[in-house]
Design brief:
By secondary structure, the chain is mainly β. The protein has 2 domains: 142 residues, Glucose Permease (Domain IIA); 60 residues, SH3 Domains (SH3 type barrels, Roll). Helices cover 2% and strands 44% of the residues. The chain is built from 1 helix and 20 strands. Bound molecules: zinc ion (ZN). The site of zinc ion has 5 residues, from loops.
């Protein structure tokens, strides 16, 4: 398991990838995120190819990933890595800031294809395994299976999205041990209505990104 998110803990997506608007491309080429913890971590095992300044991007870092794509980290207040440095997902590379064309402290995270040209990008939300939507997320919920890059398969059940924060329980009762998953976490319904307990109907579910299985109250999905 690995994590492809440059932030730790709870963070918020404030502008999704490909939103239409007043950018040179006519759409947003990255994703904007904010977090109480300012530290920016590497998102792959890669090499820092450039540390620069740009009137739009402010202080930025580019990292070349093993697949040839370039990860851009922009609007930083400071950079704590060097050009040529090899990094991993646990390397602290910079600090979130408000430099360049930015209206508040945030990270603009962008992934360019191997051309490394503006607007030749892939979805950073897909790379991170999070929904491409404004909302609050917890990085702990979005661990990526680094070998297959996806834990889904056709034998699992109906894909649902949590409408609100919900506990995954070890047994279908509110007294069982629990792990909290935040709204917008995606999961599969393995078996609907497996039990009635404590006034609730319970489903057996599997969390999409980490494959953990357990029980949830069945009315909390979108
Ligand atoms: Zn942005």
């Amino acid at each position: 398991m690995a994590i492809n998110i440059p932030l730790t803990g709870t963070f918020r997506v404030t502008c999704e990838y490909k939103r239409k608007g007043n950018w040179s491309a006519g759409w947003h080429t990255g994703i904007d995120m904010v977090c109480d913890n300012d530290t920016i971590y590497g998102t792959c095992d890669g090499t820092v190819t450039k540390i620069g300044w740009d009137k739009s991007y402010g202080n930025y870092i580019t990292v070349k990933a093993p697949d040839g794509k370039y990860h851009w980290f922009c609007h930083l207040s400071s950079v704590i890595c060097k050009e040529g440095q090899k990094i991993s997902r646990t390397t602290k590379i910079g600090v979130m800031g408000n430099t360049g064309n930015s209206t508040g402290k945030h990270l603009h995270f962008e992934i360019r294809n191997s051309s490394n040209k503006y607007a030749d990008t892939i979805s950073p939300a897909d790379y991170m395994g999070i929904p491409n939507a404004v909302g609050s997320y917890d990085s702990d919920n979005y661990q990526i299976n680094s070998t297959s890059n996806s834990s889904s398969n056709s034998s699992t059940g109906e894909l649902k999205t949590l409408a609100r924060n919900t506990n995954l329980r070890s047994a279908p009762t509110t007294s069982a041990s629990k792990v909290l998953y935040l709204a917008n976490t995606t999961l599969y319904i393995l078996q609907a209505g497996v039990a009635q307990a404590d006034g609730y109907t319970w489903d057996r579910v599997k969390i999409r990104v980490n494959g953990k299985e357990g029980y949830m109250i069945n009315k909390n999905y979108k």
